[in-house]
Structures are given as C-alpha cells and as structure tokens.
Amino acid sequence: MELANYLKTCCLMSHGLTPRESWCLAFKFDIANGLTVPTNWIEKEKASEDWFAYFLKRNPSLSIRAPEATSQVRASAFNALVVDKFFDNLIEVMTKYRIRPGRIWNTDETGIPTVLSPPNVVATKELKQVQQTVSAERGVTTTIVGFICDAGTHCPPVYVFPRKNFLSSMSSHGSPGCLGIAHPSGWINADTFLMALQHFKKFVDCSVDNPILLLLDNHSSHMDYKVICFAKESGIHMLTFPPHCSHRLQPLDIAVFGPFKSALRNRFQDWLNLNPGKRISIHDVAELTRDPYLLSFTPENIISGFKNSGISPFNRGIFPASLYTPSFATDRPIESLSTDPSEPLFPPAAPETDLSVPHSPEEALPNDLIVFQVLSTPARTGSNGVSSPIVLPCEWKAEDTGPDEDTYDHTGEKCEDRRGYQQKNTQASRSSIG
User: Fold this and answer.
1) Which fold, 75-115+138-329?
2) pTM for the model
3) Residues whose CB falls within 8 Å of the CB of residue 245, separated by 6 or more in sequence, listed in order
4) Nearest to 12, CA basis, from 111, 78, 81
5) How does pLDDT run across 74-119, given as a tens digit for each residue?
6) d(Cα 139, Cα 113) in Å, to the nearest integer?
7) Are 106 and 147 in contact (CB under 8 A)?
8) What is the CA radius of gyration of the chain?
9) How many Å apart are CA 104 and CA 359, to the nearest integer?
C-alpha cells in the first residue's frame, strides 16, 4: 500500500515513474525493509515483470497511462500563492469599479490550421497502419478571436487571415456578425487586437459610467499602449491571468475551445468526404467554422467555464489541493516580511572587511579574499571602439619589491613598495566596479 501511494503521489506531481523505474523502486523498497526477495531480483537489481503485473491487479486504482506533455513552467506556475493573488485582484477590481455578475467577459485567440488531425475511424483490426486523407502535408493557420460573458452570451468572432490584403469572400459565410482581418502572419498583434476590441465594443453596452471587466492573458498584443487607451476610454477594465495558468483559470480554455476543436475536426472530415480530391483553403475556413462555433459557444459551455474557473460565481476554493501538487517540486520557503513600518525593510548590512594594508606580519588578510589589480598596461580597445581597463584577479603578495625596483600606481604616483601599489589600485578597481 505504501508503494502504491508513492506512485500515485509522483503521478500527481507530474513526475510519474515508468514501469522499469517501478521495478527498480520495488526492489530497493524490499531491501530497505529487510524483506526476502527472489534470487533473480538480486541478480538484476529489480523486480520481475510478473510481479509488477500481479502488483497492478492487487491495486486496481493503478494503471499504465500515456501522459500528456506538460512544461516545467506550467507545472510550477500554477500554485496556491499565485492563484490566491489572482482572486485577490479579481475581487478588488470588481469591488472598486462595481462590476456586477453578467458584466464579466473573457477573450482569447486560437489557431485554425487548414490541416487538422483526422478523427478516429473504423478499420480492420489486423491492419498494421491506418491512413486518412487530409488537405496537405502542412496547413496554413488562421486565428479566431472569441469573446464570452459569464451570463452565457458571446460576441461574434474575429478572423485574422494570413494575407496582406483582405477579401470579403474570406469571411462572407462565417458566423453571424463576424469580422474578417488580414495580416501577413495570420497571428494576432497589437493592431489586429485593437480592431478586434473595437469590434467587441459595438456589441457590448459599456462606458466609463457602466464599465465591464475583460479577462485575458498576458500576450504582448493585449498590453499595447493603444489597446489600453481605447479600453480606458470605453469603460473596459482589463485583468490578466497569471502567466502559464490559463489552462485552469481561463473559461474559454476550460469549456469552450475544446468542444470547438472537436466539432471542427469532424466538420473538416465531412467536407473532405463530400469533396474528394479538393483541398481546404483559407477561403473555406470561415464557412467550415460556422457550425462548430455555434455548437460549442453555447450558454451551457460558457457558464460551465466561468463556474469551473471560480470566477463567476466567485469561488476562491474551487481548486482542490491535488491540482497544486505539480508545483511542489519547485516550491521554496520564503521569509515573511514584517508589515511594521518602524522596522527596516532589509536587515542591517554586515560590517565591511578592513582592507587596509597590514603593518606587521602578524596582521593577515582573509584567506578567501580576492584582490582585483588594475595593470599599468594601456587600456584594451574592443571591436566597438570603446576602451576599457584590463582588470584581472590576482593573489595578494605582501613582500616588498626591494629598493632597486620602482613601482607606480594607475595615476603615475610612485609607491614605496608593492603593497602600496596593490592597495591603491585595489581601491581604484573597487570604485570602478562598484
């Protein structure tokens, strides 16, 4: 039971163990607990495959699954501290600007390539490889921008087509009220998002006296100066999600874009079956996304997305502790700062080390001290034409140079001995560095 619980915990932390790693762990677990193990376990230093098969039967809650790749950033970013801070900001904005339920919106964009992975099909059981026709090897991506409200409504979408010049035929058969925009890359940027926000303003009753709250991610196009100015003038208060947390906090990602992509994949396949030998182009994207958009942007899905994210109705404790487990691998304790204004924000600095030149052999400098010496050679000129002094670390030498050898510092002043030379140049180098 202890081994099974350990494997479950590793899985929740997004660091699940493979069957081979589980065999080795079981062997080490038995040895550490003084249990008798078979001879072949000792020879191979791991448990056998037969034992592992019976282990899975004894623990039906365990199974071998194909994991979904999750980046380290996303696993560590979604933690209780970050989520609590987001909900603090959310309730503060709603209270300060008197945002009522039904006035909370969410916007996000997603790509629609002309080539999608085909859905599952019925095939011969013994067939080694099953093929399905698609439009091309690689598709061209069109961006769609969606807007949803916690009341269950939505705003007509915006299409960003990968073309320099926009043609009305590209979006003529799209969703009712949609807007078509052309951009060479087909991706959203500051200018195209400003046009999308202006399109959104036409369908939403908002002003400075009657504001709304718009939740969105931290994409650079959303933070553009012109976008923020337009939102401020239109009574649109923008609140961003924490980085790499949109998979849990963004309603569109939670309950809308998933059904939309599934319905779109089936719609693409139906079109290819009805038009054999033809290819899907960007002129067909708006028409093909019309039905999937209407089927997925439903009040049920939209309300479910806001509810499961804890945004509307407001629920700070919507996420169980198990969802924060992946961030445990990178969590570090932090020191709490005092809120007393009379106390200093930072601890007092440590006393500086006395770098004066020792006057007797008994006085010694710290063993780990590194002295930077400015050489008396000309400055080095870099490739950009800028001259800089040559600063190199060196060991401290306290012996004199002798009466027959004169030493000069970086200003040309004659020093009595090597120690005076190094002391002066050390102070100069420290002042230039610090």
Assistant:
1) Nucleotidyltransferase; domain 5 (3.30.420)
2) 0.71
3) 74, 77, 78, 82, 83, 86
4) 78
5) 888 899 999 999 999 999 999 999 999 999 999 999 999 999 888 8
6) 5
7) yes
8) 33
9) 74
